Write the structure tokens for this entry.
Amino acid sequence: MAKIILFIVPLFILNLSITLAQKSGYENLPWGSTVEQVRKKYPNIERTSDSDADFKEATVYTENYSSGSIDSREFVLWKNKLVKVLVTYNIDNITADGLMGNFKNKFGEPYDAAYNEEEINGIVVKKYDFYWNHNGTRVILRAVSMGLVEAVLTLYISLKYSDDYNSEKSKNIEF
């Protein structure tokens, strides 16, 4: 009986860890997915860039919308693995407060918030960020105001791949 328990418990733990690992990502698309796997779920993506603000030397694929609450999604692949998703919302169809309510229901209270204001080409850009860490993913809800223009977006970033990228970047710094 003890041998059976010793065999079953590791299988249960292995199964649980695989299940948790599969949930880490964006909308049932695990971090580390290939472009082919992303394309299966989002067939209309197009390659748009070879760089990203957070992951240099990354490939960015974009899916644009013409209706609904989402304007576009950007899928960032670093070393051919999905590491980040940026979702831009159509502010005619959503509100930042409504989105915040949805995020609080899904992720709980944010662990941090930040406000940043900078001037770019004579225009004052205000950013309001709210942060969650959820199951291996950093989620950032950002409201941006640039004069008469407003935008709401979310960033989903793999904590593991972000750490890997920053570690690799640190190794390349010469003193």
